């Protein structure tokens, strides 16, 4: 007997928290998986159809405008970008908090290799998510006691990979309209295709769909194909961080002893801040939007998200070019890459990136895996 997704949603909201409690009773993971089940259950319960929220007289004009815009972007995603045509992002949930989850990233002190965590559906990923900020901070503190570099980052949206109808969240509606559309494209791309145990592949694929989808979305609305305000600064900032990652990787793989590597690590972070100041003051007219991130505590784990989201974007861009911009052929090629053994997949992606005229990025095996 096959159940509809909505029927599965009902099963989840009513029975999964209880079932997980039984299955994990006595297991050391009960606390973590329990909070995952409870958090997802609360999110599903908060969902309302967009049309109901839009029609509600109590809905603020600003929120109504955002949701009307999101409806158009959602329709464009399926009709033009050939992304899944399902109930996701056709419902809304007010969470009453700034982030839906907080992700905890960790690395060894002298390595960019992420500490990974494996889950039954998502496979192995380079972070652990928590629905309460306090729980994320507590987990981070325990990891620091183990000598790990740790970073906690808030996340405003995520995908359940099509298992449930993902909502537009209140955490997303404070953005500009274009960013709201791009995140819908990004998260639907995860539903379109996902490979277990390869975070860099999945996030780079979704980031490319987001970027190319946004370009086409602007063109469809008769807008010039110009950079989003601040996109140039963001790209330059990311390049600075990725270059610093490359230098750190060389330090950790080099001949220095542990004390020497620790000293070189701190010197590299100071170099990153110095180069950032030079670019900011010379090219950005002193725009300080990234100051808080740059001058906060710095460690390896803080650099991890950048490689996760950006590493293979040039490769997917080249692939899209090779299929003449045909979305269905592009997805077929992406799926073929996803079926390769991981090392062959990375070699194929590196070849695509190189053929685009850009150096191939380093792989996670040699180093480590953006802030969103």
UniProtKB/TrEMBL annotation:
Transmembrane segments: 12-34
UniProt keyword annotations, A-Z: Aminopeptidase, Hydrolase, Membrane, Protease, Transmembrane, Transmembrane helix
InterPro entries: Aminopept
Disordered as annotated region, ranges: 353-372
Gene Ontology molecular-function annotations: aminopeptidase activity
Pfam name, any one: Aminopep
Name of the protein: Aminopeptidase
